[in-house]
Amino acid sequence: MRSSNLYRIHPEAKTLQSVREVNFSDHSLRERYDIQEWVEETPSILGERLLIVAKEKSHFDGTNERPDLVAIDEDGNIVVIELKRDDSGADVYWQAIKYASYWSRFSVQDVLRVYADYLTKHRQDEGGEEVDEEYAKQEIVDFINQDTVENVNKRQRVILVSHRFAREAISAVDWLLENYGLDIRCIELIPYFDEDKATFYLQSNMILPVAGVDEYLITPSSAKAAAAKGSRGSRNDDEVTQFFERLRDALVAGNNLDASARPTCFSRWAGSDHKFRYYHFWYRDGLWDNWQESYRVWLYNHLETNGHYQNRVRTFLHVQRKHLLQNGVTEKKADALTQTMRAVCEESSDFNFVQKDDSFAVEAVLPFRGLDDALHKKLQQTLTALISITYTSVASAMSSEATNAT
User: Fold this and answer.
1) How many angstroms separate the CA atoms of 148 and 234, rounded?
2) Which pLDDT tens digit goes with each residue over 115-136?
3) Which of 22, 96, 298, 342 fits as disulfide partner to 158, beta carbons 3.0 to 4.6 Å?
4) Bridge-partner residues for 134, per DSSP?
């Protein structure tokens, strides 16, 4: 029987205090309304970057079975995520394998339809509007950092998640790994409760495949693996994409931005929603290393119902508190960052601070009269200024002085 320990450190006394492992059920924490929500909001708890594209919804003909969560990994593979609470049960692997087999028959267009449906549900829950498949496509393209979605769902993977795994399940998964190279993982989510602090902790451990030997369980030189990688294909080229690429090149090469502040990741082409075209900039490292936390330029058309944005260009940084916390930012520092950003905007005539629930945006709205040199120059100036002030604000908010001030 595995033993898992967590300790709280008392630095001055040079002692460790054991924190008690508990069952989810002991504290009325549920599989569907708690664990599922945690994994959906923070899929990196499973040990890798994943883009959730479906949540407990049947998209199959002939059966109403519903996978808990379905994601796309950075290689474009479909990942079926099956969750259990305190005990996996003996047959959890079989349920997930069935779902993976169903998804293997989904075309790329099917995946886009499912993801658009998922995004629409989230937007409508927040008072937003329907998302089309073109928008879903651009989100996936940016996430997998490829020029095309043609290689999406070439392979299917399985991740099983539970507090404890039955020996029957472990034996079956180990056999599938060893004999068939099936990409299936068992991840323990272990809950702890610190009674002195009245605080819960959650530890994530991958128990299969054994950490460090994954590469020996998958043959990278096989024809199937090579096919899964595929080629990157051609980009979606038009005048809007060309305009944004000029903007990208000017921004990266410009002398007005410190080298450390120049974005290192970009949209593969100008995305398209029925109301706007868009292009995003983000980073491989640092606080804004999440493509969701990107600097964005959106060109709105006449279909935009918000008169403030109709036929306008919106340049903005949108920050969600949950993403800051996922990136290791403390609550105090997140508060300091929000306050600093607000103060910067109050002192600036160029940028507005927009706050809604647990997110905020720093934005500038410009008139849109065409993709001309004047707009290119103004957008370059605006993006440079936006990146400069937000990077300065980050440095201020992340400093110990800012933390102490809160």
Assistant:
1) 7
2) 999 999 887 766 667 888 988 9
3) 96
4) none
Whether 278 contacts 298, CB under 8 Å: yes
CA–CA separation, 390 vs 339, rounded Å? Answer: 12
Q: pLDDT-based confidence at 91, cuts 50/70/90?
A: confident
Length of the chain: 406
CA distances from 149 to 142, 223, 228 (A): 10, 20, 12
DSSP codes, 82-149 = EE-SS---TTHHHHHHHHHHHHTT--HHHHHHHHHHHHHHHHHHTT-----HHHHHHHHHHHHT-S-S
Cα 233 from Cα 249, distance rounded (Å): 22
Helix (H) or strand (E) holding 165: none
Mind listing the pLDDT tens digit for each residue in 8-37? 999 988 899 999 999 999 899 998 889 999
Which tokens sit at 129? 């509007």
Q: Evaluate whether 321 touches 359 at the Cβ level (below 8 Å).
A: yes
- DSSP structure string for 315-373: EEEEEEHHHHHHTT--HHHHHHHHHHHHHHHHT-SS-EEEEETTEEEEEEEEE---S-H
Give the model's confidence band at 233: pLDDT under 50 very low, under 70 low, under 90 confident, else very high.
very low
The one-letter code for the residue type at 272 is S
Query: Where do the domains of the chain lie, and which CATH numbers do they carry?
Result: 6-229 (3.40.1350.10), 239-405 (3.30.1460)
Please, what sign has the CA dihedral across residues 12, 13, 15, 20?
A: negative
3-class state of residue 397 by DSSP: helix
pTM score of the predicted model = 0.73
